[in-house]
Specification:
The chain is an alpha+beta fold. 39% of the residues lie in helices and 10% in strands. The protein is built from 16 helices and seven strands. Strands 1-5-4-3-2 form a five-stranded antiparallel beta sheet. Strands 6-7 form a two-stranded antiparallel sheet. Helix 5 crosses helix 16, helix 12 packs across helix 13 and helix 14 crosses helix 15. The longest helix is centred in the middle third of the chain and has 15 residues. The N terminus is likely disordered.
């Protein structure tokens, strides 16, 4: 079925791996009326699944889809308004892009950054055999930069202290209920604007399975959305400080956000339940590594620690499970 998650393990999926079909030529929606188009020839190979995969929030994300013709579709809310972007690879290896909606010009202007034009993969030097092998097998990995902070921040807040499945379910419910149908030929949704996020009633959050702590953080962020969006143009340390000034946003949330909105190559995620153990086990066989040990192991990759962590996740080498899975709940049922 088109658009399903890659049949790799959960760790590789978390590393940003999204399966994009090889493509069979332009799909039936290509060239649909009202589309603005752009043809881009990147100077280096770009793997659309690896580069855009981190923007997908679960296999049924209403803002993201892949189709059998090899296209990646993305609905987004830009400063110019809602937009739908379709990206695919042409026969000559170039990137074909089409966009619909009031924000079409904005997303096409931002397309190079979205596909990693601001990224500098040449600055990365593998220091471990596993990282070297993962890096060599993925020459098309680029770090995306959306330039949109709130869009990246809200799904990350929903992922605080819950399983990924719970967070994805909440995201789907909220976007479909409070967002709007995306422009263009695909059945996608654009996430709500900042004002709508701030006005979601308490029972709306409850029905979506979101507790008061996370919903309050999102409401606070939505109320200062204009200030947070300024962080997209800041260097990572200042951007993180801007985000973490909002109560409920800590280093874990700011790093996960800036990895997407700013393409921050060094924004390593700390405070994560699993990542230190995965990094420690992959690089040294230590399954009980903490944040301090993880940062020590990633120190040789200073300036590129996020890329190194992604390559480790994509390698899929994880410690054997020895504890029960995290309990899944749905407070909407209570």
């Amino acid at each position: 079925m088109a658009g399903r998650f890659d049949p790799l393990d959960r760790t590789a999926v978390r590393g940003g791996r999204t399966q994009v079909p090889p493509g069979t030529g332009p799909g039936p929606a290509a060239g649909a009326a009202g589309a603005r188009r752009r043809h881009r020839s990147p100077g280096a190979p770009v793997d659309l699944g690896l580069t855009l995969g981190p923007l997908r929030r679960g296999p049924a994300d209403p803002t993201f889809r892949t189709t059998p013709d090899g296209s990646v579709w993305r609905a987004t809310r830009t400063p110019g308004g809602p937009a739908t972007l379709r990206v695919s690879r042409a026969a000559d290896g170039a990137i074909e892009a089409e966009a619909w909606g009031p924000g079409a010009d904005w997303v096409l202007t931002a397309l190079p950054a979205l596909l990693g034009a601001d990224d500098d993969p040449a600055a990365f030097v593998p220091r471990h055999r596993l990282v070297h092998a993962s890096h060599r097998s993925r020459p098309g990995l680029r770090l995306t930069r959306t330039g949109l902070v709130l869009e990246s921040l809200i799904p990350v807040v929903l992922e605080q202290k819950v399983t990924s499945d719970e967070a994805y379910r909440s995201w789907r419910r909220l976007v479909r209920r409070y967002g709007e149908p995306a422009p263009g030929p695909q059945d996608l949704y654009v996430m709500p604007d900042a004002r709508t996020w701030a006005l979601i009633p308490s029972w709306g959050w409850h029905e979506a399975g979101v507790d008061m702590k996370r919903s309050s953080t999102i409401v606070r962020a939505a109320r200062v959305a204009a200030r947070l969006e300024e962080a997209a143009a800041m260097e990572p340390a200042r951007a993180a400080a801007r985000l973490e000034a909002v109560p409920g946003i800590g280093p874990w949330t700011s790093a996960e956000t800036l990895q997407r909105s700013n393409g921050a190559a060094d924004a390593v995620t700390t405070g994560d339940l699993h990542l230190p153990g995965i990094v420690g086990y992959a690089l040294t066989g230590e399954r009980d590594a903490d944040d301090e040990r993880m940062l020590e192991l990633l120190a040789p990759y200073a300036g590129q620690r996020h890329r190194a962590a992604r390559l480790i996740l994509l390698a899929g080498r994880t410690p054997p499970r020895r504890a029960p899975r995290m309990y899944r709940s749905d407070i909407a049922r209570f």
